[in-house]
Design brief:
heterodimer, A: 325 residues, alpha/beta, Rossmann fold, Alpha-Beta Plaits, 2 domains, 6-stranded mixed sheet, 40% helix, 26% strand, elongated, B: two-stranded antiparallel sheet, 11 helices, 2 strands, transport (chain A), Daunorubicin resistance ABC transporter ATPase subunit (chain A), cell membrane (chain A), P-loop_NTPase (chain A)
Chain lengths: 325, 288
């Protein structure tokens, strides 16, 4: 990959399954070193998109380059340069953690001379070095996921794909997985492409694409997306609420009212507004708080559904059913 | 672990080459063996059945034959090659079933997204399955002395070699099935449906001579017949038997009266194995 070339470049990507168009011509670029998140309700086309980027599905139209290689014409080059962690575990439970990694290394042709050192490094990174000789069946869900992340990294990929890396894990394990992901991104300088339906995790991404019905409906940093959606909510505690409301109307043209004992109003760019407020309001302010819109608000405004409705148990059911097929 | 991240050990994955594909074949093979060894229950259970056939059923039916006036050839000796083939057959099919298992547990995907030819994976799987099955067969072959088959080194080697060939063809058949049948229950149902008639029509458990015409035709259409007959011929070549017994128990396979030579039978099994392997590779490539 030439320096400066994006890690992932997608143009006009389409995937049809018979009558159904799962992905309807999407375009986006992921820069090298980014953590890029894919958000969307169930059936939005996220998994289909990942499938095409990982060379598991052949695009119906359009093109995609991953790590500088075309996903159709240079399939093996793409595969050599990506690491994959799927939603569902893909480990051999009857083998030890170490044996699972060795299998992967041989399949990817990792040079033997470098293997021992690399294996130790990735296992230590995810805290499984001590447990390497135990059968994977004895691992907890979080340990299995960490082993898969270690395995995905073993061959030094340029892009790591994580499909719902923390689904089904308890909050504490989820936090520790994120800890590993961020540490790894710093240590390995790789690009991370992930899907998630946990909003708090999407916050960790440098940029997010929101996908709905096979199209990307929004793509920006979490901050910018939230700014675009709307206004921040500002709450003021003043000595004279009535005067403060009048002053807000007069100086800034803002309609405010008293809610829960505080002067409350909505304004774009709330944090930037606070200094002006102090300078120009002409009223004593005792306390101020600014609440940013949440990514939930963002998601809602673009897709019309809450991510909590889109995710959850129904999705897990579908996945189990799909795997059994 | 501290904040000072160590310099990562970068590894460079080389472009695809024959050497790389061979490494893949080897590791898939290796995993097959590791899994087999780690499942002791499977090893033991797959040995119990043939031992029962050979020592219990063989002994029981021998007494029947003795009272019926047949003498000279112990039934256990006769069914020995058949039981060897049977052992190998079941183990080979179980190995092939592991592909269905791998698919259900997701591990197949780990193999299919690797930058390696699908052919290498299928070949590794077939060789691994055949090896494991042959290893099981060797245990049964080692019982030769108990059923009156001499421990002649050349005979032992011939039997093991012929077992491997048969095991390879059967694993390839199983892998081909596993490429299309993606659910465990259906796989075992189809396997059972294919294996039972194959076994009964192969001459593994009764002589091929003097069969009614319809049965004779069916045995000649059955591929397993050509895997069992060379083994029986190898065993009988080491027994000094009067010609009439030889004719009754080791008639060999004939096509329209022409005795099919052992080398041709083995060639047929090998060709079938390779053909099935090729088809299996095509099936797994189609998923792209």
């Amino acid at each position: 990959m030439a320096t400066g070339e994006p890690a992932i470049a997608v143009t006009g990507l389409v995937k049809r399954f018979g009558e159904v168009t799962a992905v309807q011509g999407i375009d986006f670029t992921v820069e090298a070193g980014e953590i890029f998140g894919f958000l969307g309700p169930n059936g939005a086309g996220k998994s289909t998109t990942i499938g095409m980027l990982c060379t598991l599905l052949r695009p119906t139209a359009g093109s995609a380059r991953v790590a500088g290689y075309d996903v159709v014409r240079e399939r093996d080059d793409v595969r050599r340069n990506i690491g994959l962690v799927f939603q569902d575990p893909t480990l051999d439970g009857y083998l030890s953690g170490e044996q699972n990694l060795r299998f992967h290394a041989e399949l990817y042709g990792v040079p033997r001379a470098a293997l021992a050192g690399r294996m130790r490094q990735v296992l230590e990174m995810v805290g499984l070095w001590e447990r390497r000789r135990d059968k994977v069946n004895t691992y907890s869900g979080g340990m299995k996921r960490r082993l898969e992340i270690a395995r995905g990294l073993l061959h030094s990929p340029r892009v790591l794909f994580l499909d719902e890396p923390t689904v089904g894990l308890d909050p504490q394990t989820r936090a520790s997985i994120w800890d590993y992901i961020r540490r790894l991104q710093a240590a390995e300088q790789i690009t991370i492409f992930m899907t998630t339906h946990y909003m708090e995790e999407a916050e960790f991404c440098d940029r997010i694409a929101i996908m709905d019905s096979g199209k990307i409906v929004a793509l920006d940093s979490p901050e910018a997306l939230k700014a675009r959606v709307g206004k921040d909510r500002v709450r003021l505690h003043t000595d004279d609420d009535r005067a403060a409301i009048a002053a807000l109307k007069e100086r800034f043209g803002i309609d405010a009212d008293v809610r829960d004992g505080a002067v409350t109003f909505s304004v774009a760019g709330g944090q930037e507004f606070v200094p002006r407020l102090f300078a120009e309001l002409g009223q004593a302010i005792r306390a101020v708080s600014v609440a940013r819109p949440s990514l939930d608000d963002v998601f809602m405004s673009y897709t019309g559904t809450s991510i909590r409705d889109a995710g959850g148990s129904a999705r897990d059911w579908m996945r189990v059913a799909a795997r059994r097929r | 672990m501290t904040a000072t991240a160590p310099q990562p050990v970068r590894v460079q994955v080389p472009p695809r080459s024959l050497r790389h594909d061979l490494r893949a074949v080897k590791i898939v093979f290796h995993r097959e063996v590791l899994r087999f060894v780690s499942e002791r229950m499977r090893v033991i259970s797959s040995l119990i059945q043939p031992v029962l056939w050979l020592l219990v059923l063989g002994t029981g039916l021998s007494s029947l034959m003795a009272t019926g006036g047949g003498d000279g050839v112990d039934l256990k000796t006769f069914i020995f090659p058949g039981v060897c083939a049977m052992t190998v057959m079941f183990t080979a099919m179980f190995s092939a079933a592991s592909i269905v298992w791998d698919r259900e547990f997701g591990f197949l995907r780990e193999m299919l997204v690797a930058p390696v030819s699908r052919g290498a994976i299928v070949i590794g799987k077939c060789l691994g399955g055949a090896f494991v099955a042959t290893a099981q067969g060797v245990v049964i072959v080692a019982l030769a002395g108990l059923v009156g088959v001499p421990y002649h080194p050349a005979l032992m080697l011939t039997l093991v070699g012929e077992l491997f060939l048969g095991a390879f063809a059967l694993t390839a058949f199983g892998v081909l099935l596993a490429a299309r049948i993606t659910n465990m229950q259906s796989f075992f149902a189809v396997m059972q449906m294919a294996m039972m008639p194959m076994l009964f029509l192969s001459g593994a458990l009764y002589p091929l001579s003097g069969l009614p015409a319809w049965l004779g035709v069916l045995t000649k259409l059955n591929p397993l017949t050509y895997a069992v007959d060379p083994m029986r011929q190898a065993v009988f070549s080491r027994l000094q038997l009067p010609p009439e017994l030889e004719r009754a128990f080791n008639a060999g396979v004939t096509w329209n009266g022409w005795p099919v030579p052992v080398w041709l039978q083995l060639l047929m099994v090998a060709a079938m194995g390779l053909g099935l392997l090729g088809l299996a590779i095509v099936q797994f490539r189609r998923g792209d």
